[in-house]
Design a protein that fits this description.
This protein is α/β, with parallel strands linked by helices. The protein has 2 domains: about 240 residues, QueA-like (3-Layer(aba) Sandwich); about 100 residues, QueA-like (Thrombin, subunit H). About 20% of the residues lie in helices and about 25% in strands. A 9-stranded mixed beta sheet has the order 2-1-17-16-14-3-12-13-15, with helices on one face. The protein has a 6-stranded antiparallel beta barrel with strand order 5-6-7-10-9-8. A hairpin with a 5-residue loop joins strand 9 and strand 10. Helix 6 packs across helix 7. The model has no long low-confidence stretch (mean pLDDT about 95).
Length: about 375
């Protein structure tokens, strides 16, 4: 299938640069995949599309201030690092699910600089140079390097002090302190718990405690998986044919109570509502690995690429944002609802001035 089939015109004015003024007030387009019916609602209306037989699954990963701006020690030239994942103890490039990731000092990082990066270089960060990073070796992937940090204080404390929230590249900011403080709160779900993401699972940004309570009042149980989101989530597919694109590995974990809840929901004929692509990828990765499509608890790393004509085994409904043209995320929702229906829905979203991408409005596919 050609990548160009997933392109669409998007006015720049519709790319959300900030979240809506108050969390939980975003618009929600509802797409019924059996009929193609489209409704225009708000995220606060989501509970009316659920029944007590259903299950809500969220991703409880937590974004950390993974973006570092500093200088090379030898030349004083500027350098930027994005801490993607704590380096596995076995030296591989596939990330693991670490409970104490910010205690690790070796990381896989994206390194950007005005000149070519080389092994042995030292970068210095912070107003007093309290964080230093030695470049160890290149990794697969553009700009990816293994880096070893040395800290005057605990790494987590230093990142909290002068690391920056890694908002997506299409969010163009002046970098003011007030914007950074706002992003620390709004580029994070209200149920975030397990630190390790460099990008938020953005569908979950719409939920408030009140909206979650309304879902619970309908008798719908909520459970969580963890998938640490990497920068590949923003990467468009550049191959001419989508089959030639390869996904980055991202670490995930499914607790026993979540596996049991998903299997029980399926057994009673309920629907599994997945919050965002990361939740879908986690459940579908595990379902694809079992003979009967059941979910089993455990940890691993996923590079699953869900695209038409994929047959879903775990996900029945999905809350998601409006995604970039020619992105793997757009291909995923096209696999769930059908490419033609998704492209028609996106054309309508443009016409009705929905806000797009991470800080934008959302779509519920049922």
């Amino acid at each position: 299938m050609k990548t160009s089939l997933f392109n669409y015109p998007l006015p720049e004015r519709l790319i959300a640069q900030h979240p809506c003024e108050k969390r939980g007030e975003d618009r929600m387009m509802v797409l019924h995949r059996d009929t193609g019916l489209i409704e225009h609602k708000g995220i606060a209306d989501i509970a009316q599309y659920m029944t007590p037989r259903d299950l809500l699954v969220v991703n409880d990963t937590k974004v950390f201030p993974a973006r570092l701006l500093g200088a090379w020690e030898d030349t004083r030239g500027s350098v930027e690092m994005l801490m993607v994942a704590a380096a596995p103890a076995d030296g591989s490039e596939i990330p693991g699910m670490e409970d104490d990731a910010l205690e690790h000092l070796e990381w896989n990082c994206m390194v950007g600089s005005g000149r070519k990066c080389r092994e042995g270089q030292i970068a210095v960060f912070g107003p007093h140079g309290e964080l230093r990073a030695a470049v160890l070796k290149p990794l697969s992937g553009a700009g990816m390097w293994r880096v070893r940090f040395s800290c005057a204080r605990p790494l987590a404390a230093l990142l909290d002090e002068f690391g920056r929230t890694p908002v997506p590249p299409y969010v163009k900011r002046e970098g003011t302190q007030s914007e950074e403080l706002a992003d620390r709160e709004r580029y994070q779900t209200v149920y975030a718990r397990n630190t390790g993401s460099v990008a938020a699972p953005t569908a979950g940004l719409h939920f408030t405690p009140e909206i979650l309570a309304s879902i619970e009042e309908k008798g719908v149980k909520r459970v969580a998986v963890t998938l640490h989101v990497g920068p590949g989530t923003f990467r468009p597919v550049k191959a001419e044919d989508i089959e030639d694109h390869h996904m980055d590995f991202e670490a995930f974990s499914i607790p026993p109570e979540t596996a049991d809840a998903v299997n029980e929901c399926k057994a009673r004929g309920g629907r599994v509502f997945c919050t965002g692509s990361t939740t879908v990828r986690t459940l579908e990765t595990v379902a694809a690995s079992t003979a009967d499509g059941r979910i089993v608890p455990g940890s691993g790393a996923s590079d699953i690429f869900i695209r038409p004509p994929y047959e879903f085994k775990a996900c029945d409904a999905m809350l998601t944002n409006f995604h970039l043209p020619q992105s793997t995320l757009l291909m995923m929702v096209s696999a769930l609802a059908g490419r033609q229906r998704i492209m028609c829905a996106y054309a309508m979203a443009v016409r009705f001035n929905y806000r797009f991408f991470s800080y934008g409005d959302c779509m519920l596919i049922v």
